Amino acid sequence: MYQLHFGVLAEYMPSILDGLLVTIKISALSIVFGTAMGIIGALCRISSSWALRTVGNIYVEWIRNTPLLIQILFIYFGLGVFFSLSPVTASVFALAFFSGAYITEIIRAGIQSIHRGQREAALSIGMTEWQAMRLIILPQAIKRILPPLAGQFITLVKDSSLVSVIAVADLTYVAKNIVTTTFRAFEVWLAIAAFYFILSFGLSLAVRKLEKRLAESD
Fold first, then answer.
1. Are the CB atoms for 171 and 161 separated by under 8 Å?
2. 217 pLDDT above the threshold of 70
3. Where are the transmembrane segments (predicted)?
């Protein structure tokens, strides 16, 4: 019968913590760049320019209808033919590109949920389009998009485990190596799942706190 031996985790804890730091680094950078891409994508999607709307539509539909794993492999091995990308750089690029498409839709929906009359009222008192967006629409839209945005960020943290296929030494990659060496699959994968839970739940709590603070500021 299989005997549990959690002591193996203590032995490999330095490697696990190194993998945890890599996961945090990749996730944080991907969230930052993915959010920037989402903002740009949303502005393209609601633009009055046909060309920008088309670019935004193609970006969102292409990304949403192809698997993330394929995108990671294409960026690392496919674009790697033309550009010298490290595994970490390719991972951040793939995750940001992927999450940016979903964030685009979240931000677009949030902006368009604000009644058109508010924009027209802002323009009627002399505001520019940018001022109306920055001072009237975005402050209201941000409160509405925070919950789905938090869900997208948490999904990104969990999806980051896929980058182990291109030998990024993240939590999943480190765990696979430890299991291969020790054959302690139950203990190792249980611990790795716990680390992902802590990251995701911590992120969820942080967003809830931000939501509460924004609600109190009303």
1. yes
2. no
3. 20-44, 65-85, 91-111, 186-207
